[in-house]
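Anyone up for a design puzzle?
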């Protein structure tokens, strides 16, 4: 989760106590110890080391008879027990702040003595400067608090070239970059929402179409129905649902019926649709044979009741190409010439006769 990730960053991965790999032998012995201690008073119970020493041979023989599946079950039990007993640090802002300061202080100790003669405003700069000098690398890091309940201030380091990069390319002061990151992290703004707000309506519509088309192709290939099928918004029921047996489920109710994203309304409507597509609350689903049969029956009934479910295809009309005046005149002359030739031939034939 977001909070777990934040705790890991601030506490250096020490939020959860580290434990050894599950061991079937330990779980087996622990269960036998619990069984033998059941019903005994607190002062008379066996201790683990004493129990193993006294029953070593019996335990070894019984453990050797276990199957692989039984040993796996013991390991699973250990994992469950550890999950139930997992100890988390108290979520105290002051404690988190102190732990973060201690973590950075410990990090600084590695090269602190070497750089004591140098003056730096922040100690954590010392180690990172040493790393850059020793390895010849360039870079920067920024660590900020992840919520309003945290009290830690920003920690940042920029090597010489990295600082020039931020100033020249990003046009920001390094400290301002850290403050921007902190503001973003604390506010919890949604990245997809911010990026969508910068796009034009046409771009959002295009992205909707792309998401719908890509997911349609995916489900068709996944179910071995086709490699590709162009989305048909005009005859969605006949060309897509009935033909391939797939349905775009979760289409926002207020935007029904399923139609081209360019025809569902303004920016607010398109934003609603694209959010449902990204969050997969609206996605393609394969219909069962029974569901498909019911859908076809319902479509026929709705069509018979006067609802336009199946839109008729446009009839093709023959296009007549109008000739220009020059072409018409030329054609008339050729016709006349052909007639003259015919008359002359007829005369010549008569003369010959």
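Challenge accepted. My sequence:
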């Amino acid at each position: 989760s977001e909070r777990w990730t934040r705790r890991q960053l601030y506490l250096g991965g020490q939020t959860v106590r580290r434990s050894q790999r599950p061991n079937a032998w330990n779980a087996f012995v622990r269960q036998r110890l619990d069984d033998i201690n059941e019903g005994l008073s607190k002062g008379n119970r066996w201790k683990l080391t004493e129990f193993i020493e006294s029953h070593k041979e019996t335990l070894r023989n019984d453990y050797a008879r276990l199957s692989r599946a039984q040993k796996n079950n013991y390991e699973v039990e250990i994992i469950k027990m550890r999950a139930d007993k997992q100890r988390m640090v108290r979520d105290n802002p002051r404690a988190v702040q102190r732990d973060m300061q201690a973590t950075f202080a410990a990090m600084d100790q590695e090269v602190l003595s070497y750089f004591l003669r140098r003056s730096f405003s922040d100690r954590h700069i010392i180690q990172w400067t040493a790393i850059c000098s020793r390895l010849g690398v360039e870079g920067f890091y920024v660590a900020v608090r992840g919520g309003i309940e945290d009290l830690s201030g920003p920690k940042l380091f920029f090597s010489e070239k990295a600082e020039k990069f931020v100033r020249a390319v990003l046009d920001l002061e390094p400290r301002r970059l850290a403050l921007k990151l902190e503001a973003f992290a604390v506010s919890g703004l949604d990245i997809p929402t911010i990026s969508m707000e910068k796009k034009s309506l046409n771009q959002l519509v295009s992205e909707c179409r792309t998401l719908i088309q890509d997911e349609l192709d995916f489900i068709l290939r996944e179910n071995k129905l086709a490699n590709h099928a162009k989305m048909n918004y005009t005859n969605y029921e006949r060309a897509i649902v009935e033909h391939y047996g797939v349905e775009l489920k979760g289409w926002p109710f207020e935007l029904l019926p399923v139609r081209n994203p360019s025809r569902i309304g303004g920016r607010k409507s398109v934003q609603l649709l694209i959010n449902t597509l990204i969050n997969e609350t609206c996605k393609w689903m394969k219909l069962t044979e029974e569901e498909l049969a019911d859908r076809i029956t319902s479509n026929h009934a709705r069509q018979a009741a006067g609802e336009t479910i199946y839109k008729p295809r446009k009839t093709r009309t023959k296009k007549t190409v109008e000739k220009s005046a020059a072409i018409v005149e030329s054609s008339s002359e050729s016709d006349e010439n052909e007639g003259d030739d015919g008359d002359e031939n007829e005369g010549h034939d008569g003369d010959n006769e």
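A detail worth pointing out: Residues 10-17, 110-123, 331-353 have pLDDT under 50 and may be disordered.
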